[in-house]
């Protein structure tokens, strides 16, 4: 019988149960750190501080002394490398892609060292013949390219257009930039659509799905998508809303961003958007207002939209 295990909770439990707690102590994070640290992260701050100041217990050293008489040496317990001395590398604890919170640990250790650094700068100041030099410093934390690539790959994008030819051009443009994509349109068989959607939902599939609005607005659940692109506005705003709604189905746990493309100084910019707004306002008015509140302004707006004269 299989059971579901929360990996992150299990890793945290293991880290919190390590025996080094008899040597290291939990340190409170600097007040400038707003994130809540876990117990093993607070202990790690003490480890980093002791390593950098040279006060780390030999029991926690990564080097083990091997007594071979005149040929004695120190051996690294992880890499196996040998050295005449235990070479403790300052700043050697860095963040990686494992997701164990080491970035937060390092930032907490740096923030906690500000006061000690300032004290060190003032130490023996009166005995120094050198003038004090004020200098600014900036700490830039940049994720590794591998981590950024993984984040980008996790973002699922859907591109909507009314025209298959437009999506064909978009697909060629994506391919020219080494971006894989899928294309679903009205003439595609149902079985092919299902196959593409299954691949799009899988972790190893392409993260861009191109769809015509007609196929993207009927009975689909695209809750794994977090980016929606609309390549042109629609005269009927409900068509856009219906397509966008595919990403807001049950199961969507992330924030969804909708990007609309509008050609400046064209009919899209000067006419379509205004009509969309008027239609939505009229639709809301039909549900929210009482029958007697049907004003002459609304009548005029309806006549303009549908091209009829309500005054005759």
From TrEMBL:
Q: What is the name of this protein?
A: DNA repair protein RAD5B
Quote the InterPro entries the UniProt record gives.
Helicase_C-like, P-loop_NTPase, SNF2/RAD54-like_C, SNF2_RAD54_helicase_TF
SMART domains, per database record: HELICc (SM00490)
Q: Which CDD domains match?
A: SF2_C_SNF
**Organism from which the protein derives:** Colletotrichum siamense (Anthracnose fungus)
| One Pfam family per UniProt | Helicase_C
Q: Which GO terms describe its biological process?
A: DNA repair
Q: Which GO terms describe its molecular function?
A: ATP binding; ATP-dependent activity, acting on DNA; hydrolase activity
ATP-binding found in the keyword field: yes
Source organism, top-level taxon = Eukaryota
